């Protein structure tokens, strides 16, 4: 179970927040040599793979240590359901036409149940849950649960979804929501889906506790499913979320970060939950383990493709489209696929990133380099590669409207960068 608490320390004029995830380390915070920067306060000496990793701009530090698992990449409510809003985002509506219609009733039921299963023991936590659930969203993860559930149920002759299928979809969305609440705290985001974030409305303390509560509540419902394989699968996801944040914090402004490291971090932060969603759905259908493994690989490859596309959009879309400044990941020192590829071609980019954008206009120059030296194009190729693998993973399923929708989900993702 992941639990986060925030501690603030004053150092001169700089406020440093420490996010601790159940760590029992006795690491000392006594001495911090700090260098003032035009756009942030950072110590340049703390670089990649150090225990202490500082974030530029927001001045928050994380103290963690983590190891990468070996061999990872080799494979192991009211009204219409908000999920249909996803169709408004595509430049090619035909790709998304009726994509989730085949599970629309399932999603409507889920939307009605989400707030009630959070529980009403604490009015503040309930209000926080209403804030985040009420903000809508695509409900992509539970939609994938329902699509895989119905696509695999037909293989074994199931005519209707089980209560375990439906509860899994609810658990997945709760875990995703909890991670969003914590992410908004870490990123100091004031808006999500056009609404004020939980921490903006209720403060950081309540937001962290609300996220913890949802993780705990989802774990309770998960345990009551009484399927050890699924329990282990989903529990690993919660650990992966923390590992992803740790890996990201420990590699800020690190120009030596490799593509494999980026993909592992992307798996932890994005693809892990999607992979667990699709595999868990297949397990509850009772299909052969070979098929459930293919559903896991489908979710992993789809999730990785989604993350790469999101990282491309951070450079290609406007601030209005993104809802945040363009190149914001790069500004924070988070080097994504387009940057990693660009670093292979342009040595000047390394110098700019090493300077942590202290010079006026240096961030804009770095963004231009990424755009003009092939970093975006190579990232597009990577997104397509993962998308192709995801489609191949679906070949084990018999033809159906549900399999078609799963394929359309892959195509929709690629449409975002055309």
UniProtKB/TrEMBL annotation:
PANTHER family: ALL TRANS-POLYPRENYL-DIPHOSPHATE SYNTHASE PDSS1, GERANYLGERANYL PYROPHOSPHATE SYNTHASE
Required co-factors: Mg(2+)
Organism classification: Eukaryota, Viridiplantae, Streptophyta, Embryophyta, Tracheophyta
Species of the source: Penstemon smallii
A biological process term (GO) from this entry: quinone biosynthetic process
Transmembrane domains' residue ranges: none
Protein name according to UniProt: Solanesyl diphosphate synthase
Listed GO MF terms: metal ion binding; transferase activity
Family to which the UniProt record says this protein belongs: Belongs to the FPP/GGPP synthase family.
């Amino acid at each position: 179970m992941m639990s986060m608490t925030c501690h603030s320390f004053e150092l001169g004029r700089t406020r440093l927040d420490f996010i601790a995830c159940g760590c029992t380390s006795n690491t000392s915070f006594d001495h911090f040599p700090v260098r003032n920067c035009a756009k942030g306060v950072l110590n340049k000496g703390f670089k990649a793979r150090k225990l202490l990793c500082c974030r530029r701009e927001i001045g928050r530090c994380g103290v963690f240590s983590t190891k990468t698992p070996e061999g990872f990449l080799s494979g192991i409510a009211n009204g219409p359901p908000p999920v249909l809003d996803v169709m408004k985002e595509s430049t090619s509506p035909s790709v998304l036409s009726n994509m989730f219609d085949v599970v629309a009733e399932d999603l409507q039921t889920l939307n009605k149940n989400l707030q009630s299963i959070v529980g009403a023991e604490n009015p503040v936590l309930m209000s926080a849950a209403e804030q985040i659930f009420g903000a809508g969203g695509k409900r992509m993860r539970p939609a994938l649960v329902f699509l895989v559930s119905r696509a695999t149920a037909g293989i074994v002759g199931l005519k209707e979804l089980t209560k375990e299928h439906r509860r899994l979809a609810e658990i997945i969305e709760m875990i995703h929501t909890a991670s969003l609440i914590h992410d908004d705290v870490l990123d100091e985001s004031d808006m999500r889906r056009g609404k004020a974030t939980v921490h903006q409305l209720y403060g950081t303390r309540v937001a962290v506790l609300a996220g913890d509560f949802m993780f705990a509540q989802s774990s309770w419902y998960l345990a009551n499913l009484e399927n050890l394989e699924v329990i282990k699968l989903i529990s690993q996801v919660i650990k992966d979320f923390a590992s992803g944040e740790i890996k990201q914090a420990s590699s800020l402004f690190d120009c030596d970060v490799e593509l494999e490291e980026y993909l592992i971090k992307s798996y932890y932060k994005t693809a892990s939950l999607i992979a667990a969603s699709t595999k868990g759905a297949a397990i509850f259908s009772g299909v052969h383990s070979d098929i459930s493994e293919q559903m896991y690989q489908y979710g992993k490859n789809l999730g990785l493709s989604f993350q790469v596309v999101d990282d491309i959009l951070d450079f290609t879309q406007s601030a209005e489209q993104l809802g945040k400044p363009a190149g914001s990941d790069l500004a924070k020192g988070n080097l994504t696929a387009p940057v990693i590829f660009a670093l292979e071609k342009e040595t000047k980019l390394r110098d700019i990133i090493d300077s942590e954008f202290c010079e006026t206009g240096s961030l804009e120059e770095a963004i231009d380099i990424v755009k003009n030296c092939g970093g975006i194009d190579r990232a597009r190729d990577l997104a397509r590669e993962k998308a192709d693998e995801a489609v191949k993973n679906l070949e084990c399923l018999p033809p159906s409207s549900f399999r078609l929708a799963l394929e359309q989900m892959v195509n929709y993702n690629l449409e975002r960068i055309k």
